[in-house]
């Protein structure tokens, strides 16, 4: 947690510095009301506050012991949801067929979703949607290729029909 | 608002189209709420985009019905899978799942349904009574009060949504405020942080930000898990005994009141209401040892609290145009999109609207109760759809919903970017609610601060001399000081003095 707070604090400082510098570069006396109506006034104030918070986050991660001891204590006390290791009479768990780590699963999800989003507008909507659903199911080994293909086609056709024809929503 | 007004508005809703829309939207909301990975915010945001071409009166019916259904629906997966369908139902897991393990899944669902219905009813009564009162006070809000209210909202939201580490809540809030500054500012139309692009000149659109932060980030979070869950419990008796409800009437009233108060606080949502209601119920219970092991009282407290919060969250939406929770934020955005102007002038411009919203709440509560008690077994089957099939379908709906409002692919890219940002924020314990609240309140804070300074030639004195501002600043300082090391230092000082004496 210390390490992630250090990294988070660093990112917050960079974001705050970016917004702050961009705010200072905006015109400050261009309007008839002077600095009070300057476009950079509120972003600058917010950047300074965010920068302070980022610095506190980093300093705390580097030097504070009491805070992280308290966090460990609090995390141990909170009742958790999400299933536990006891035998559960209400539900069963099935292991996923793919043997990917958590990070790989995250990257795969974002990657496949990102590819779909980039395809939208470049190829017909139904084709893009069908390919996305097919790729997603196969990537996570959620079923056979036939089952994945049927789901992909059904999703693409149903979404197009319901939203373009019934709800009259513009599709990408 | 008088009872006559309520009954007149309720009678106007009793037509085939409205009842049909209410029923399907409530059912959709229950399913959305039930599915881990889908939140009430996402459900409301999705339908905002998808019902863009509907008439505005029907849109309000649909969105409120989805909201009510989703907050209740999460109790199903909480009870059956020990996974809350929405964060609002996390407290329901604690006593709901032990009941399911003991073979009382159906009864637990029935108790949850009845408690949710009573909670929503308490919320709508509070909405009807307090909205007009707060509306009159809101008419005396000027630029100074609105700016101070925005700051207070961010501080208290950050504090309550990140109770272990409020600094992270405040960072999220400030980030949301900063991101809302992107685009042309309202006084001189100067393009801020746009880098010369047309897409950014209009600012970041709220619906894609919401769908990304609450929807796509949840999809990533769900797919990250290596295991899937399948329901195999049998669901038997559903309708609870009246005595089991009446025995806990004090808990119900207290949880309802807590839900309304927490809901009225800007940005703090149903999850906080549920936990606070649960905590109070446990402290006041005659049998606290049963909590965590299948206590009816615990289940009733959490479900009443989270549903009463809905009515409470709508109160500041209608009177101040400030959302009391994330789904309420989407509702606010949807109202703006359809030409409804919530805020202090609402009772003047659209005097019947508060009555209409109250009546819609009543209708959706009835729909929720009917669907909740009668379609238990078919709806539970939805939980058996594997997430590898469900999540890509949900993502395509998110993309459609984000695209539908402005018809530009940039919004879909934005949705994905905020989905990734939202995921990393949650992974590092930064809450999403203050980010969204800051995003909504940012323009209000910006406009009102600069307007106030221009009006008084730069003087900041009115911010500290006007009575409402003084109350808000006092509350803000109280929250910040209470979470700082100062109280601990003072206590340590007193302890040292006592030990010396």
Structure description:
The complex is a heterodimer of chains A (172) and B (501). Chain A contains six helices and one strand. Chain A is mainly α. In chain A, helix 1 runs antiparallel to helix 2, helix 4 runs antiparallel to helix 5 and helix 5 runs antiparallel to helix 6. Chain A is flat. The two termini of chain A are 41 Å apart. In chain A, 30% of the residues are buried. Chain B has 501 residues and is mainly alpha-helical. Chain B is 74% helix and 2% strand. Chain B has a two-stranded antiparallel ribbon. In chain B, strand 1 and strand 2 form a beta hairpin. Classes of the chains: A mainly alpha (172), B mainly alpha (501). Chains A and B meet through helix 1, helix 2, helix 3, strand 1 and helix 4 of A and helix 4, helix 5, helix 8, helix 10 and strand 3 of B. Strand 1 of chain A pairs antiparallel with strand 3 of chain B, so a sheet runs across the interface.
């Amino acid at each position: 947690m210390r390490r992630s707070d250090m990294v988070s604090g660093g990112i917050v400082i960079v974001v705050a510095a970016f917004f702050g510098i961009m705010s200072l570069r905006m015109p400050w006396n261009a309007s008839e009301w002077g600095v009070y109506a300057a476009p950079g006034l509120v972003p600058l104030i917010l950047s300074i506050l965010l920068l302070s918070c980022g610095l506190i986050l980093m300093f705390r991660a580097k030097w504070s012991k009491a805070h992280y001891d308290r966090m460990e204590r609090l995390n141990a006390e909170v009742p958790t949801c999400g299933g536990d290791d006891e035998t559960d009479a209400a539900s069963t768990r099935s292991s996923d067929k793919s043997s990917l780590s958590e990070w790989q699963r995250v990257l795969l999800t974002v990657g496949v979703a990102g590819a779909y989003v980039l395809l939208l507008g470049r190829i017909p909507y139904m084709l893009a949607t069908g390919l996305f659903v097919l790729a997603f199911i196969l990537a996570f080994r959620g079923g056979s290729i036939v089952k994945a293909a049927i789901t992909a086609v059904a999703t693409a056709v149903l979404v197009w029909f319901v939203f373009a024809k019934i709800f009259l929503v513009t599709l990408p | 608002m008088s009872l006559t007004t309520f009954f007149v508005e309720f009678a106007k809703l009793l037509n085939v189209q409205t009842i049909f829309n209410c029923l399907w939207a409530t059912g959709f909301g229950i399913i959305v709420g039930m599915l881990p990975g889908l939140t009430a915010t996402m459900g409301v945001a999705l339908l905002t985009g998808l019902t863009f071409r509907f008439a505005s009166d029907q849109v309000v019916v649909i969105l409120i019905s989805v909201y009510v259904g989703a907050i209740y629906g999460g109790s199903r997966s909480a009870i059956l899978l020990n996974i809350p369908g929405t964060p609002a139902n996390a407290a329901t897991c604690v006593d709901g799942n032990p009941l399911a393990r003991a073979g009382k899944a159906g009864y637990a669902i029935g108790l949850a349904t009845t408690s949710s219905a009573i909670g929503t009813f308490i919320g709508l009564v509070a909405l009807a009574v307090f909205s007009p009162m707060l509306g009159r006070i809101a008419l005396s809000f000027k630029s100074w009060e609105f700016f101070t209210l925005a700051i207070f909202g961010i501080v208290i939201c950050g504090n309550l949504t990140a109770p272990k580490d409020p600094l992270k809540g405040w960072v999220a809030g400030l980030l949301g405020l900063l991101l809302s500054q992107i685009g042309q500012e309202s006084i001189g139309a100067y393009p801020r942080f746009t880098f010369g692009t047309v897409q950014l000149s209009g600012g970041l659109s709220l619906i894609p930000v919401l769908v990304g932060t609450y929807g796509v980030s949840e999809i990533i979070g769900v797919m990250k898990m290596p295991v899937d869950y399948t329901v195999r419990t049998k669901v038997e008796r559903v309708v609870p005994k009246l005595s089991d409800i009446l025995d806990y009437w004090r808990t119900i009233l207290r949880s309802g009141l807590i839900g309304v108060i927490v809901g009225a606080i800007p940005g703090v949502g149903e999850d906080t209401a549920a936990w606070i209601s649960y905590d109070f119920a446990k402290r006041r219970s005659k049998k606290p040892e049963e909590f965590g092991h299948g206590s009816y009282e615990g289940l009733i407290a959490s479900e009443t609290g989270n549903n009463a919060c809905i009515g409470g969250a709508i109160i500041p939406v209608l009177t101040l145009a400030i959302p009391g929770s994330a789904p309420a934020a989407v509702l606010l955005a949807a109202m703006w999109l359809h030409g409804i102007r919530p805020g202090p002038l609402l009772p003047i411009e659209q005097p019947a609207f508060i009555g209409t919203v109250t009546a819609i709440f009543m209708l959706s509560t009835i729909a929720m109760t009917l669907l909740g008690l009668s379609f238990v077994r078919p709806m539970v089957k939805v939980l058996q759809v594997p997430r590898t099939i469900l999540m890509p379908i949900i993502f395509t709906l998110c993309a459609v919903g984000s695209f539908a409002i402005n018809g530009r692919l940039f919004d879909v890219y934005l949705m994905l970017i905020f989905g990734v940002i939202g995921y990393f924020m949650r992974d590092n314990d930064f809450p999403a609610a203050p980010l969204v609240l800051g995003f909504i309140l940012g323009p209000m804070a910006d406009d009102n601060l600069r307007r106030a300074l221009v009006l008084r030639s730069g003087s900041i004195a009115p911010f500290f001399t006007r009575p409402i501002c003084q109350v808000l600043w006092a509350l803000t300082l109280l929250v910040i000081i209470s979470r700082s090391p100062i109280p601990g230092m003072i206590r340590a000082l007193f302890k040292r003095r006592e030990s010396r004496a």
